[in-house]
Amino acid sequence: MTFPIYLSLIPLQTPLIAGFFLPIDGLFSTQGVMVMLLAAYAGAMWMFLSSAPKVHTLMVSDLELARQFFEGELQLRTAEVPLHYYYNYEQTLGLSGIDPLYMSTDFGRPAMQQLSGTDGFWYQLKKNVQLHVIGGASIGDKNRQRHVCFDHDCLEQILMKVQTRYVKYKIRREKPLNFLVKTYEGAVIEFAEVSN
């Protein structure tokens, strides 16, 4: 009695081994490496942007008076310039669509100088919220200093700080938000929200 010997075990295992290593081989191909790099880049960008603070920009008519107000009377802590501002992330301020009423009226110089992302002052409003104070707003009625903002939330947070520091204020209008603040030295600052 003879038994046939089958040598087909080795050919059956070879496709299984090749099938097992085929995805790894595809993973280390040029296309696989590019997909891995893009996934790593997307993860890094998500972590970077989710940890980046939200920044509100406030245009003021007098930078020095604004610095004295925010540091002296509201006692806001100065903040580090966020990393993404070093790479011109702040190009979408919307400054081209500003009503000329809010811009400087001095015809001897341009209404808006080129702004670098690091110009002005930086303050910490909340844990992950910063205030970027820059020049560029015009003087208001009765030679009143103006602080102009495009974000309602920003002005609400400043108003809350004013209320907690017991600084005198008067709300003139809710929408768009407009209120006056009287400093300890007697200067009146108008905070105005600009609706796009």
Question: What are the key terms here?
Answer:
alpha+beta; 2 domains; eight-stranded mixed sheet; 22% strand; transmembrane helix
What does this structure look like?
- This is Glyoxalase-like domain protein.
- Keywords: Membrane, Transmembrane, Transmembrane helix.
- It comes from Acaryochloris marina (strain MBIC 11017).
- The chain crosses the membrane at residues 5-24, 30-49.
- With 196 residues, the protein is α+β, with helices and mostly antiparallel strands.
- It folds into 2 domains: 12-49; 54-193, no CATH class.
- The chain has helices at residues 9-27, 30-51, 63-73, 152-164; strands at 54-60, 77-78, 121-126, 129-135, 145-149, 168-173, 178-182, 188-193.
- A hairpin with a 4-residue loop joins strand 6 and strand 7.
- It is elongated and about 110 Å long.
- The N and C termini lie far apart (96 Å).
- Residues 7-14, 16-22 and 89-117 have low confidence and may be disordered.
Terminal-residue CA separation: 96 Å
Note the main sheet: 8 strands, mixed
Report the portion of residues in β strands: 15-25%
Counted by DSSP, the helix tally is 4
Topology, number of strands? 8
Instruction: Identify the overall geometry.
Output: elongated
The residue-averaged pLDDT reads 75
Secondary-structure content class: alpha+beta
Nearest-angstrom radius of gyration?
A: 30 Å
- Strand arrangement within the widest β-sheet reads 2-3-4-1-5-8-7-6
Unreliable residue stretches: 7-14, 16-22, 89-117
Could you spell the SSE succession in H and E letters? HHEHEEEEHEEE
**Percent helix among the residues?**
25-40%
The figure for the number of domains is 2
